[in-house]
Write a structure and sequence with these properties.
302 residues, alpha/beta, Aminopeptidase, 2 domains, eight-stranded mixed beta sheet, globular, binds zinc ion
C-alpha cells in the first residue's frame, strides 16, 4: 500500500508505528523544516574552518565543547583531546553517537590559513562547493555536524563521543575506551551509531568489520526500514574499512553500526560531499533517536 505526504500529514496519529507499518515511503517527515540544511551547513563550515590533522585536534575539541555543549551537558576533553559529553543530570541508558574530529594529516604552509577563510565552503542550491581544491576534512566533519545539529534539534537525550587520531590508527578511541573515568559512559548504552562512512557506493549501514559482527540483524533491519520509510534508503553492508566503532564493539557489548554521511574521495584534494546524503542520514538518525524504545528492542542481542 502506498501512502503519500498528504496522507501522512493529515493523519491524526503522527506516530511512526501507525504510519510506517502499512505504508510505503514518504519524503516529508513530521518536524521537517527549511532551516535544517542551512543550519547543518553552518555547523559544518564552522568545523571545517578549524584545522584538525590527526594528533592536533585540541583546538577543535575545545571549540566544540564551549560552543555546542555549554548548556545542559556535562562535557570533558581528555588528555587525547577526545570529547565526551552526556546530558547533565540524566540518569538512565542513553544511545551513543560517535564521530572523529581528526582529519587525514595534510602538510603544507598555507592549508591551515586556507581552511580558516570565511568562504572556504559554500552552499549553492543544495550543493556544497569548496573554494580551493584542498582536503576540507568532510571525513569526518560531516559526521560531527550531523551529531551537533541533532543535539540542537532533540536536546540532551543521547551521549556523544568525538574521538581523535582515528586516521592514524585509532589511538584516541583506544584511550577513551580504557579511561576509568568513562566506565559509566559506556555502560548501559542500548544502541549506538558511528557516523563516519563514505557514500561512494550508496548509503551504507556497516555492521561487520573483519569478521566482527557489531550488532544484531534486527538492529540493521530496523534502520533499513526507517530509512526506506523516510525515502532515504540505507543498506546493511560488511564491506567497510576500519573505524572507531570496531574498537568500541570489541571493548563493550554495545550494538553499533557505521553510517554513511555523504563524503566521497576522502583523504584527497578531490574529496566531495553529497550534502543531500548528509541530510538524509541526519533524518534517519533523528528518527531512530525518536524511536528509542523500538530501536532498543531491535538492538537487543538474541
Ligand atoms: Zn573517517
Amino acid at each position: 500500500m502506498e501512502t503519500n505526504s498528504d496522507t501522512f500529514e493529515k493523519s491524526g496519529d503522527m506516530s511512526y508505528e501507525n504510519v510506517f507499518v502499512s505504508s510505503g515511503t514518504v519524503r516529508r517527515t513530521p518536524g521537517d523544516d527549511d532551516t535544517l540544511p542551512s543550519r547543518l551547513f553552518e555547523i559544518l563550515k564552522d568545523l571545517v574552518r578549524i584545522a584538525s590533522p590527526s594528533g592536533d585536534e585540541d583546538t577543535l575539541a575545545r571549540h566544540i565543547a564551549s560552543t555546542y555543549f555549554a548548556d545542559g551537558w556535562e562535557v570533558r576533553v581528555d588528555e587525547y583531546a577526545n570529547l565526551v559529553a552526556v546530558p547533565a543530570g540524566q540518569v538512565g541508558d542513553l544511545p551513543l553517537l560517535t564521530a572523529h574530529m581528526d582529519t587525514r594529516p595534510v602538510w603544507g604552509d598555507d592549508i591551515r590559513a586556507r581552511l580558516a577563510e570565511e568562504d572556504i565552503i559554500s552552499l549553492d542550491g543544495g550543493t556544497v562547493t569548496k573554494k580551493h581544491p584542498i582536503q576540507c576534512g568532510f571525513d569526518d566533519k560531516a559526521g560531527i555536524a550531523i551529531i551537533l545539529a541533532l543535539k540542537e534539534r532533540l536536546g540532551p537525550r543521547f551521549k556523544v563521543l568525538l574521538t581523535t587520531r582515528e586516521e592514524t590508527g585509532g589511538a584516541g578511541v583506544a584511550y577513551a575506551l580504557a579511561d576509568e573515568q568513562n566506565r559509566g559512559f559506556f555502560a548501559g548504552v542500548p544502541f549506538a551509531f558511528t557516523i563516519d562512512r563514505r557514500s561512494t557506493s550508496g548509503s551504507d549501514i556497516i555492521h561487520t568489520y573483519a569478521g566482527l559482527k557489531m550488532c544484531s540483524d534486527r538492529y540493521v533491519e530496523e534502520i533499513e526500514a526507517i530509512s526506506a520509510f523516510l525515502g532515504a534508503p540505507m543498506a546493511g553492508s560488511d564491506r567497510g574499512t576500519m573505524a572507531d566503532c570496531y574498537q568500541i564493539a570489541e571493548a563493550f557489548p554495545i550494538p553499533i553500526v557505521n553510517l554513511s554521511c555523504g563524503f566521497m574521495h576522502e583523504h584527497t584534494p578531490k574529496e566531495t560531499l553529497d550534502f543531500a546524503s548528509t541530510l538524509d542520514t541526519f533524518q534517519v538518525v533523528e528518527r531512530c533517536l525518536r524511536e528509542q524504545t523500538r530501536l532498543t528492542e531491535a538492538a537487543r542481542w538474541n
